[in-house]
Amino acid sequence: MSGDEQRLFIGGSWVVPENGFYEVIDPATEGVVGRAPEASRQQVHAAAAAAREAFETWSRTPAEERAAVLDRAADIVQRNFVPYAELAQAESGATTGTARGMQVGVGVARFRRYAKVEPVEQPLPPQINEAGPFGKAAVMGALAVRQPVGVVTCITSYNNPWANPAGKIAPALAMGNTVVVKPAPQDPLSVYRMAEALEAAGAPPGVVNVVSGALPEVGEAAVDCADVDMVSFTGSTAVGQRIAEVCGRGMKRQLMELGGKGAAVVFDDADLESAVSGIGTTFSFYSGQICTAPTRVLVQRGVHDRLVEQLAAYAGYLKVGDPREQGTVVGPVISSAHRDRVESYVELGRKEGARVVTGGQRPALERGFYVAPTLLADCTPDMRVVREEIFGPVVVVVPFEDEEEAVALANDSDYGLIDYVWSGDVARAFRVARRLRAGGVGVNTVGRNMEAPFGGFKKSGVGRDVGSYALHAYSEVQAIVWPG
Fold first, then answer.
1. What CATH number is associated with residue 395?
2. Which member of 34, 49, 141, 197 lies 3.0 to 4.6 Å from 4 by CB, making a disulfide possible if both were Cys?
3. In the chain, how many domains are there?
4. Secondary structure element (H or E) that encloses residue 84, with its range
């Protein structure tokens, strides 16, 4: 094997893949970053079996010891911060700032967060029971205890090869679960570095397993394996629906963070500079490849033209190009196929009658999978570009007359992950926020509180994670009752 061929991580051993290797491509240069292993179905099942064997001991390991492993892993990643960020950048096409701060940096922060031990027992108020067929009168005490689910398959997204896996692995391990990680095929090498850090930090064999592959059978095996008790998935709604069907047949627990088409409701009293800056992150942050992006702008007619003009100007200021170069704001999308998909949506928008205000043409760069930040105006609610997730640097604008229409338009979506409201009237902003059918709402911000629950309504997902909510997601609640 050559030095750039990655092995699988199964049961504490680095294993040669039975189905060979495939190339991981740098989206910016189209060069080969490395060769990732293609696991066989049998190897995926072996990883799950190793996780099952390790579960009994790991789940009974004191929470403080499990937390210490996570903390040491964070130290190791921090020591290797720059090379890990460079690898993440090469795999994902992220700009240097994003690769360091939002990928590896957030990955470290998530390991640190779940290295904090939280109580898993909640005492419940005593209950006085009258005498009856179940025994004498008694005062019954009770505890609600959180227990680990078991073996968790973590299927991660390509847009963040550090933060997304860390956000699954760390809380799952903290709760006493063991994991089989199936990284996105486009950028799996970073996840193997994470596994190395956990191994070096003292995670016992089988507690963490990583199996990759470009073929669908790898993910399918990681979901349908009998040793798997839960599936945590981040990705498209279509794939999530197929996973949910398999989980339903086996009564496997699931945590699904799926697609989004975030509505940004901008009222005529809004701070337009703040709104433009927030919405403009869609053009730049991960090149629009983020499910929380405010891609569907609903703007009150009184400020419609000004907002469109300012958004177009904002997009025009953004430097598109090599993510390694200083000053670059918009890097490539993940692959040639995805670039074609995003461009096809822009063309569809034209055919549907949308006006391309800015963008809409491929940047004049010799290599790399680039899409120009694109703004589509004169859109109507029935257009596919308004209703479907594009997952690229494309923003659509739809006008509205009043608050009632704004709420109706925002909720007229299959998705409900994160919406946004901009208004100078804070009371109205919060009133509207409560009426939006979304798992989260940003009021005059696109910022996040990393202890707030994260997840979606409707086809945007099932369950909640982040902060303590992730510990809840990766656990079962057990009731213990006794006579007082």
1. 3.40.309.10
2. 34
3. 2
4. helix 81-92
